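Q: Can I see a sequence and its folded structure?
A: Here is a first one.
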Amino acid sequence: MNYLNEGLPSYIEVDTQHQGVVMQSMGNTLDEVYGRYSDAKAGAYARCEEICDEMDGRNLCITSANCHMFSVQFEFSNPMNGRPMVCHITPKQTYAMYTDMRHISEAHMVWRHYAHDMVYISVIGWDDRDYCGCGVRWMAGTAYVYVEDEAYRVDNPFTKDGKLRLRPMLSKAGA
């Protein structure tokens, strides 16, 4: 995963290259999921509630559980840019993902297709290309990938030797 810290507390890693998914809830409290539980689980859940409150989150719920551990999620708006996110807290990691990037996977595929095409074509500069309603456009030296109603800026399109990178970082255009 590619992680950045998008203005969030340092203990929350932000994955900007994948669509955030709000998973199905097993329950909203430890009582709903376990009935009886240890003080350690109660303390861990209290910490999750604190993180949710700190991020002005909503819909805190348990998404997976077994007799040893559990994972939770909550939704919130990024305080830096207002974009919707989901935070997942597991026993090993706390990470957040944007939920408004429905087509990020397709955008990565369109870019890889474009980069492969450009290897075999002699061009002066980089051409705009369309692929079945998706495409790559260059504006003022910056590449954008368009998929349906979303646009993603290609943040690092070139390798150090000037070739097109196959797996660049994409970011939501206008965000």
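Q: Show me another, different protein.
A: A second, unrelated one:
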Amino acid sequence: MSARHIFLTQAIIEDLEIISAEQDYLFQSLCTDMRLMGGYLCLADPKTGAPFQLILFGSLADDKVEECLQLLVRQTRLLARCADVLSSRHLAEISLPCAAAIRAKDISIIAAAGPNAELCESFSLAIAYLLGILDKEESCGIAVQSNNFHFTEMAIDNLD
């Protein structure tokens, strides 16, 4: 990692710590079915896909932890190999039903594993927006390409 990436990564981690208290609220605002459970949010290196920060959101059964973490690593590493792709949901071969990863410019890959891919992508896009990595237009552009209407409707009403 370059010095710029190390500095930006540290800033992202500090910002995540600040908003981490709000992440369950954000997650709940993205959920329309309260029966859906939580998962993990991951920040990963954009070149290698190697995770460098994991945060639990919502609640997750102990027997699902390893599966969630494996899905995150798979999504981030495969997206890192596809430098021109902005979301794992844009690639059928790496799109998974309960995980999604987005490219947050050249700063990070943000991924989530949890209830379903659309919700995970929405959560990742919202985190990228809250961190100031993606603006509303960029976030909505990725969501539109993924046919993620859940995020675009939420963004129109809540992001500004």
